[in-house]
Amino acid sequence: MSENAPLGSLYGVVFECPVPAELAAFYRAVLGGVLDPDDDEWVDLILPGGGLRLGFQRVPAYVPPEWPGDSGAQQAHLDIAVGDLDAAEQSLIALGARLMDTQATFRVYVDPVGHPFCTVH
């Protein structure tokens, strides 16, 4: 293997949550794609193009990430490109997202179970 050769490729990103089917349906409404449920414990959302997927894993004692937080805990979030920040905000709120912060070129939300994500323009 060469020094610059990748070890692998990104298959997906997994979100822990209390009810995988519900959170997967939220992100399907936001990003499109096809739901591929395994059981009540796991649902995949295969994003348009068929490559990358978001996984949703049931965690019975789920606790949402703290945002904003000063505890030092690191967390990941999605940046979702949109054509119109205002129009996207209206749709996201209707789907169950909560607006947390507004900036000139992006907005910060949390999904229905508290994972932060941003829309960017």
Automatic annotation (TrEMBL):
InterPro entries named in the record: Glyas_Bleomycin-R_OHBP_Dase, Glyoxalase_6
Family matches, as Pfam families: Glyoxalase_6
Domain Glyoxalase-like: 13-119
SUPFAM superfamilies: Glyoxalase/Bleomycin resistance protein/Dihydroxybiphenyl dioxygenase
CDD domains xref list: VOC (cd06587)
Protein name (record): Glyoxalase-like domain-containing protein
